[in-house]
C-alpha cells in the first residue's frame, strides 16, 4: 500500500471563508463553470427575483451543498473512527486517553470505507483485474455491464401515484370522499324513494373533495429538480483502452476496470483512480465544490477523505490542463456525483413545525368525529332500530353519520391555511424578505436560537486598515500614508500587502480618489490593497513582479500564499532588504504570505525592523508582536500578519507548472519566514444591529455569533453588537464547562440574568456530550470563534439534538451545509449562489430584516390560531348538536347537512382567510418562542374558548331562534321532544316540512350573523377592539374583514332565496326580523369577550388569565 504523501490541510478543497475572506484566483488558465444564479422552488414555493423561467435548479448551485455536507460527515466519521481505535489501544495498554466527542450521521457510510485512494495504483489495477496496457477484454466488459449496468444516473423515483394520492387524501380528503360515496349510496339504491337533497349533499361533498385536492396540488407543486439537468453534464464519449487498443466509446458504456485516457478539456464520465499523471495535470471540481480553482492531479493519496484526495478524479469534473491515465472505479449511481445528485434531488425530509401542528389538529378532530359516529351507530343499533324503527332507517343513518363528519370537519381550513401562508409570504416579500418555501414561513416564529455569521451580517462588510505595526512599533494608517519615507521597511510592507493580494482595482475607476475606487475581491483583500496603494503604486509593484504560484486564502488554513519571480530589477529594492536584494538572482523566488497571526507566527524566525533590516525573532520580539495582536483583537479589529521568504531557485526540484510544486511551496512556507508587519482592520457593526439583538432577546431568542475571527476580535464585536453584555472579567471559556449534569432550569434568552462564554473551534473538538448539554442550557450569550465550516454544521446539529429550533445565517459557499441543515437557513442578499440555494429564506436588505421575519412567523401562527378559533364554533360545535338532538332526543335535524357544508366552505371560508391579514398584536415580540410539541396550534385552552364559550353561546342562540320561530307558527317545542318523526295532530306533512326548512334556514342565518361578531372578537387574544380597531388606525386596520362579511351575506341570500335551490335543497326564505335579532346575540358575544380580555389584562395570573387561549 502506498503511503499518502505528507500534505498539510492546505491541500484540501478550496473553501471560502465564513467571513468573506476568499480571494479570487488569478490563475485564469482554467476554464471555470459559470454559476448562473437560480432559485429552487420546492414544495409550496413561490417565485422571487432569483427564479428562472423554467424553474429548474441549477446543479452548479445545488450540488456543492450536498458535496460539502457529505465531505464534512466523512471527516467526522474518520475522526471518530481514529478516536475509537485510540481508545481501544489505550484500554489495551492501560494508558490514559481522553476521547473527543462529536456527532456525524453519514448518508453513505460506504464512502468513508473506500480504499481506492489509499491503495497503490498496482493494487487498484489488480483488484479490478485489468491492465494499463491491455485494458479489459470483451468477456470482462460483458460480465461487468451485466453486473454494474449502464454508466447513467438512474431517474429519480417520481412517486407520482403516492404524490397524487396525497393530494386527494391527506387531511380531511378521505373523510369527504367516503362521506360522498355513502351519501350517493343513501340516495341510490338505498333511498326509497331517492331524495334529491341527498344527491345534492353527495355532489357538494365530492366537489369539496376535489377543491381541497386542487389546493393541495397547488400547495405541493414543485418544479423540475436537479436530475433533469444532470444528464446534460455528462460527456457523450470517451477514450479507453480495450483489448490493447485505444477506442472511443459512449460514456454510458464504461464499466469499472476500464483504463481511461484523459486530456485537457475532457470531462470525467466516472470516478477514476489516477495511475499516471503529467506534471501539469489539473482538474476543475467547481460543479461539486463551487470553487473554480483547479486542483493538481496526483498518483498518491493526499487526504484520507475520498472526496478530498487528489488522486481520485470525480465524475462530472473536467481536466483543465495536462494528461492523465486512470482506472475506472465507480460508475452510474455508485459515483460520488451520482450519489450527491440523488441527495440533491430529494426534498428536505420530515415535517415542519406547522405541518406537525396541523396534522395533530386533524388527528384530534378525526378522533372526536369517529367517537361521535360510533356513539350515533350504537344509539341506533341498540335503541332506535328496535324502539323507533321508522325514525332512522339505514339511508338516514348513513346521512346522519356523514353529517357528523361534515359537522366536525372544518372543510374551509385547508383553503384558509394555504391562503394564510401565501399572504404572509407576500407580506414578507414587501419587506424584502424572500421565502423559498411557504412551509418554512412559520418556522422562523418558532426559532429559539439564531447562529449568525459576523462579517457582512452583523458588520458593514466595509473593512478599512486603521493601524499597522513594523518592528514592534505601531503606526496609524492615516499618518503612514501621509509620510514621505524611503524606509525599506515601509516598502516591504507595501510590497507584501499589494502583491500577496487577490484583489484587483477596477480599471474603469482608476482616475477616482483612492477611497472611491472599486476593487474586485473580498472585503479583507480590498482593505489591504487600498492600504498598500496609499503607500505607493501597486501597479508599479506588479510591473516588477510576476506571479508564479498562487494558493488562495481559505477558512481552513487561514492564510494565502503567492510565489513571485522578479521581472524588473526595481522590484528588488522595494520588496526585499538590501542585503537579500543584492544576492537575489534571476530564477530565485519570493514567497509571500498573508494570514492569521496565530497560524503564521510560529513559522517565522525573523522580523523586519523599522530600518528595513531583518532581525532575529527572539522571545522578546515574539511577545511584543503577540501583545500588539491581542490588544488590537480586544478592540474588535481583525489582525493580519504579512510575511515573506526569499527562496533560491535551487531549492525547488519542480517547475511552477508541475503538480508537485504546490507541495514544495507548502513545505517552504512551514518555516524560515520573515515578518514584514501586522495590519489591523476594522469592520464596524451595522448601526441597527444592537437594537436588533435587543429586540430578538426580548422575544426570547438567543443570538450566537459564529465566526472565523480571532476570539478576542469576535468578543469585542459581539460586545458592540449587544450579543455579549457582561464585563470581560465575567466571560468564561471552555474550562467553565463541567462534565457533570447541571441542576436547575435552563437559561431563557429574555432572562434578567445572563451568562457569557467564548469558545474557539479547537474547543469544540474537545467537548463531550455533557459539556454540550451544559453549554446549551447554561449560557445565553455565546460566541464561537475560529470556526471551520465543519464546526458550523456541528453547532447546528448539536443545538437541534437538544430540542432547539435553529436559524442559521450565512452568505458564503462554506456556509451552505449549515444553512441546509438548520431548521431555517437564512441567506443574506448579495451572498453566493450556493448559499442562496441552500437557504430557506433570503434577507435582501440587511440582517435587521430578521426582526420582521420573526414577527411575521409568529403572527402567522397567531393568525392560524385565530382562524381555527373562528371556524370551530359554527363550523364544528354548533353543527354537531342538531345531529345529536336528532338521534338522541327524537328532534328533527334543525340544520340540514347541506347548509353545514355551506357554512364551512362558503360563508366562513373567506372570513377565515381575511384573518391572515391581521396585524400583529403589541406583545408578539415580547413572548418567548413557541415550544415545539408544547405550545400547540390547538390546545385545551382554544377548545374551551371555541366550544365551551363561543360554541355554546352560538348553539343556544341558534336553537332558540329556530324553535321560537316554530312556536310562533303553531308548532310548540313539546311537539318535537321525543317525537321521533311523529307529526302533531291535525298538521299536514307538507306544512310541517316547510316550517322545518324555514327553521333550518333560520338556524343557518343565526350562525352566519353571529359569526360576524365572533370574527371581530377573535382578531385579538388579549387586546380590546378599542386598542386594536379594524378601521381608522393604520397599524391595526384590516379592511379585508368587511368584504368577507359581505361575501357571507351574498352566499346566504344565494342559497336561501333562489327558488330552484329551495325546492331541491330544502332551503327557504328567512323573515327579515330573523336577520336582525341574531345581531343582538352577536353583540353579546363581542361584549362578553371584551370583558374576558379585560380580566385577562387586569389579572393575568387569575383564573381567566390562566385559561386564556
Give descriptors for this structure:
single chain; 1109 residues; alpha+beta; 9-stranded mixed β-sheet; 8-stranded mixed β-sheet; 28 strands; elongated; disordered N terminus
Explain how this protein is built:
The chain has 1109 residues and is α+β, with helices and mostly antiparallel strands. It is 45% helix and 13% strand. It is built from 38 helices and 28 strands. Strands 12, 13, 16, 17, 18, 19, 20, 21 and 22 form a 9-stranded mixed beta sheet that branches. Strand 16 and strand 17 form a beta hairpin. Helix 6 runs antiparallel to helix 7, helix 6 runs antiparallel to helix 12 and helix 11 runs antiparallel to helix 12. The two termini are 69 Å apart. The N terminus is likely disordered.
Write the layout of secondary structure elements.
Blueprint: H1 59-93, H2 109-113, H3 121-127, H4 138-148, H5 160-169, H6 173-187, H7 196-220, H8 227-230, E1 237-242, E2 245-250, E3 259-263, E4 271-277, E5 282-284, H9 286-289, E6 295-296, E7 312-313, E8 318-321, E9 323-330, H10 336-345, H11 353-387, H12 394-408, H13 413-430, E10 433-435, E11 449-452, E12 464-470, E13 473-476, H14 477-482, H15 488-499, E14 504-505, E15 519-520, H16 523-535, H17 538-544, E16 545-551, E17 559-566, H18 570-575, H19 578-583, E18 589-595, H20 597-600, E19 604-608, E20 614-616, H21 619-634, E21 638-647, H22 661-668, E22 673-682, H23 689-698, E23 702-706, H24 711-721, E24 756-760, H25 761-766, H26 769-778, E25 781-785, H27 789-801, E26 806-810, H28 816-821, E27 824-828, H29 833-838, E28 841-843, H30 849-888, H31 897-907, H32 909-914, H33 940-968, H34 989-1017, H35 1041-1057, H36 1059-1065, H37 1073-1098, H38 1103-1107
Helix pairs in contact: 1-10, 5-7, 6-7, 6-12, 7-31, 11-12, 11-30, 12-30, 13-30, 15-16, 21-24, 30-31, 30-33, 31-34, 33-34, 33-37, 34-35, 34-37
Amino acid at each position: 500500500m502506498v503511503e499518502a504523501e505528507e500534505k498539510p490541510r492546505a491541500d484540501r478543497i478550496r473553501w471560502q471563508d465564513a467571513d468573506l475572506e476568499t480571494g479570487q484566483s488569478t490563475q485564469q488558465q482554467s476554464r471555470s463553470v459559470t454559476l448562473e444564479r437560480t432559485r429552487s422552488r420546492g414544495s409550496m414555493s413561490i417565485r422571487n427575483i432569483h427564479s428562472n423561467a423554467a424553474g429548474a435548479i441549477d446543479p452548479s448551485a445545488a450540488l456543492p451543498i450536498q458535496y460539502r455536507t457529505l465531505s464534512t460527515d466523512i471527516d467526522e466519521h474518520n475522526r471518530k473512527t481514529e478516536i475509537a481505535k485510540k481508545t481501544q489501544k489505550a484500554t489495551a495498554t492501560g494508558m490514559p486517553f481522553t476521547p473527543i466527542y462529536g456527532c456525524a450521521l453519514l448518508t453513505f457510510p460506504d464512502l468513508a470505507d473506500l480504499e481506492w485512494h489509499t491503495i497503490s495504483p498496482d493494487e487498484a489495477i489488480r483488484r479490478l483485474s485489468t491492465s494499463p496496457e491491455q485494458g479489459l477484454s470483451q468477456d470482462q466488459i460483458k460480465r461487468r455491464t451485466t453486473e454494474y449496468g449502464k454508466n447513467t444516473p438512474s431517474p429519480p423515483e417520481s412517486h407520482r401515484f403516492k404524490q397524487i394520492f396525497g393530494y386527494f387524501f391527506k387531511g380531511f380528503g378521505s373523510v369527504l370522499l367516503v362521506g360522498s360515496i355513502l351519501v350517493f349510496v343513501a340516495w341510490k339504491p338505498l333511498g326509497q324513494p331517492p331524495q334529491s337533497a341527498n344527491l345534492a349533499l353527495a355532489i357538494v361533498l365530492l366537489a369539496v373533495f376535489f377543491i381541497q385536492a386542487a389546493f393541495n396540488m397547488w400547495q405541493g407543486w414543485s418544479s423540475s429538480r436537479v436530475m433533469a439537468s444532470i444528464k446534460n453534464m455528462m460527456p457523450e464519449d470517451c477514450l479507453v483502452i480495450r483489448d490493447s487498443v485505444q477506442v472511443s466509446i459512449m460514456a454510458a458504456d464504461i464499466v469499472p476496470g476500464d483504463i481511461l485516457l484523459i486530456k485537457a478539456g475532457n470531462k470525467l464520465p466516472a470516478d477514476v483512480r489516477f495511475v499516471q499523471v503529467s506534471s501539469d495535470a489539473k482538474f476543475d471540481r467547481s460543479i461539486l465544490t463551487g470553487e473554480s480553482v483547479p486542483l493538481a492531479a496526483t498518483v498518491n493519496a493526499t487526504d484520507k477523505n475520498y472526496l478530498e484526495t487528489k488522486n481520485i478524479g470525480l465524475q462530472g469534473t473536467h481536466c483543465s490542463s495536462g494528461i492523465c491515465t486512470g482506472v475506472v472505479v465507480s460508475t452510474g449511481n455508485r459515483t460520488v456525483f451520482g450519489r450527491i445528485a440523488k441527495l440533491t434531488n430529494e426534498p428536505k425530509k420530515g415535517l415542519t413545525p406547522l405541518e406537525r401542528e396541523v396534522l395533530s389538529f386533524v388527528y384530534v378532530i378525526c378522533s372526536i368525529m369517529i367517537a361521535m359516529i360510533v356513539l350515533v351507530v350504537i344509539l341506533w343499533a341498540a335503541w332506535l332500530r328496535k324502539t323507533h324503527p321508522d325514525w332512522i332507517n339505514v339511508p338516514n343513518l348513513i346521512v346522519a353519520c356523514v353529517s357528523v363528519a361534515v359537522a366536525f370537519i372544518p372543510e374551509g381550513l385547508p383553503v384558509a391555511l394555504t391562503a394564510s401562508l401565501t399572504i404572509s409570504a407576500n407580506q414578507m416579500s414587501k419587506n424584502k424578505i424572500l421565502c423559498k418555501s411557504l412551509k418554512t414561513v412559520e418556522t422562523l416564529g418558532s426559532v429559539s436560537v439564531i447562529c449568525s455569521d459576523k462579517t457582512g451580517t452583523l458588520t458593514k462588510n466595509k473593512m478599512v486598515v486603521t493601524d499597522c505595526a513594523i518592528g514592534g512599533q505601531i503606526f496609524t494608517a492615516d499618518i503612514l500614508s501621509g509620510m514621505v519615507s524611503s524606509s525599506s521597511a515601509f516598502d516591504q510592507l507595501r510590497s507584501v500587502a499589494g502583491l500577496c493580494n487577490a484583489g484587483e482595482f477596477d480599471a474603469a475607476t482608476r482616475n477616482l480618489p483612492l477611497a472611491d475606487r472599486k476593487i474586485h475581491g473580498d472585503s479583507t483583500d480590498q482593505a489591504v490593497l487600498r492600504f498598500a496603494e496609499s503607500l505607493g503604486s501597486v501597479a508599479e509593484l506588479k510591473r516588477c513582479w510576476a506571479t508564479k504560484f498562487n494558493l488562495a486564502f481559505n477558512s481552513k488554513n487561514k492564510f494565502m500564499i503567492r510565489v513571485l519571480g522578479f521581472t524588473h530589477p526595481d522590484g528588488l529594492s522595494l520588496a526585499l532588504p538590501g542585503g537579500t536584494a543584492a544576492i537575489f538572482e534571476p530564477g530565485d523566488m519570493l514567497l509571500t504570505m498573508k494570514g492569521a497571526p496565530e497560524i503564521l507566527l510560529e513559522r517565522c524566525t525573523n522580523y523586519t525592523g523599522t530600518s528595513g533590516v531583518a532581525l532575529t525573532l527572539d522571545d522578546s520580539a515574539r511577545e511584543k508582536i503577540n501583545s500588539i495582536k491581542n490588544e488590537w483583537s480586544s478592540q474588535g479589529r481583525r489582525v493580519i500578519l504579512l510575511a515573506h521568504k526569499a527562496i533560491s531557485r535551487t531549492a525547488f526540484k519542480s517547475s511552477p507548472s508541475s503538480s508537485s510544486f504546490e507541495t514544495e511551496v507548502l513545505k517552504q512556507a512551514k518555516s524560515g519566514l520573515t515578518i514584514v508587519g501586522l495590519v489591523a482592520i476594522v469592520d464596524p457593526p451595522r448601526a441597527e444591529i444592537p437594537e436588533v439583538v435587543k429586540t430578538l432577546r426580548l422575544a426570547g431568542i438567543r443570538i450566537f455569533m459564529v465566526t472565523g475571527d480571532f476570539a478576542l476580535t469576535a468578543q469585542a464585536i459581539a460586545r458592540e453588537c449587544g450579543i455579549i453584555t457582561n464585563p470581560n472579567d465575567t466571560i468564561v471559556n471552555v474550562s467553565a464547562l463541567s462534565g457533570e449534569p447541571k441542576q436547575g432550569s435552563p437559561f431563557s434568552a429574555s432572562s434578567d440574568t445572563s451568562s457569557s462564554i467564548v469558545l474557539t473551534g479547537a474547543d469544540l473538538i474537545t467537548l463531550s456530550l455533557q459539556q454540550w448539554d451544559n453549554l446549551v442550557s447554561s449560557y445565553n450569550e455565546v460566541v464561537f470563534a475560529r470556526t471551520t465550516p465543519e464546526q458550523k454544521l456541528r453547532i447546528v446539529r448539536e443545538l437541534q439534538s437538544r430540542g432547539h429550533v435553529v436559524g442559521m445565517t450565512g452568505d458564503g459557499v462554506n456556509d451552505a451545509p449549515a444553512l441546509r441543515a438548520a431548521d431555517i437557513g437564512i441567506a443574506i442578499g448579495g451572498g453566493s449562489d450556493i448559499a442562496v440555494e441552500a437557504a430557506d429564506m433570503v434577507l435582501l436588505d440587511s440582517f435587521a430584516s430578521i426582526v420582521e421575519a420573526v414577527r411575521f412567523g409568529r403572527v402567522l401562527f397567531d393568525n392560524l390560531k385565530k382562524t381555527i378559533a373562528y371556524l370551530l364554533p359554527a363550523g364544528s360545535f354548533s353543527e354537531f348538536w342538531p345531529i345529536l338532538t336528532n338521534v338522541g332526543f327524537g328532534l328533527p335535524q334543525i340544520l340540514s347537512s347541506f347548509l353545514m357544508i355551506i357554512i364551512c366552505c362558503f360563508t366562513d371560508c373567506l372570513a377565515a382567510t381575511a384573518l391572515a391579514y391581521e396585524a400583529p398584536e403589541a406583545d408578539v415580540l415580547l413572548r418567548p418562542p413557541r415550544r415545539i410539541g408544547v405550545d400547540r396550534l390547538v390546545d385545551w385552552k382554544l377548545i374551551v374558548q371555541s366550544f365551551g364559550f363561543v360554541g355554546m353561546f352560538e348553539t343556544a342562540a341558534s336553537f332558540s331562534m329556530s324553535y321560537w320561530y316554530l312556536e310562533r307558527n303553531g308548532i310548540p317545542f313539546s311537539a318535537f321532544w321525543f317525537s321521533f318523526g311523529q307529526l302533531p295532530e291535525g298538521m299536514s306533512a307538507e306544512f310541517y316540512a316547510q316550517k322545518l326548512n324555514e327553521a333550518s334556514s333560520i338556524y343557518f342565518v343565526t350562525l352566519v350573523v353571529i359569526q360576524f361578531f365572533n370574527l371581530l372578537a377573535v382578531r385579538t387574544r388579549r387586546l380590546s377592539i378599542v386598542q386594536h380597531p379594524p378601521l381608522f388606525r393604520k397599524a391595526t386596520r384590516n379592511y379585508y374583514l368587511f368584504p368577507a362579511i359581505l361575501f357571507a351575506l351574498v352566499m346566504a341570500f344565494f342559497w336561501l332565496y333562489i327558488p330552484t335551490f329551495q325546492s331541491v335543497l330544502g332551503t327557504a326564505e328567512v323573515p327579515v326580523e330573523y336577520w336582525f335579532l341574531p345581531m343582538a346575540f352577536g353583540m353579546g358575544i363581542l361584549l362578553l369577550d371584551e370583558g374576558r380580555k379585560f380580566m385577562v389584562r387586569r389579572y393575568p395570573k387569575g383564573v381567566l388569565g390562566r385559561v386564556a387561549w
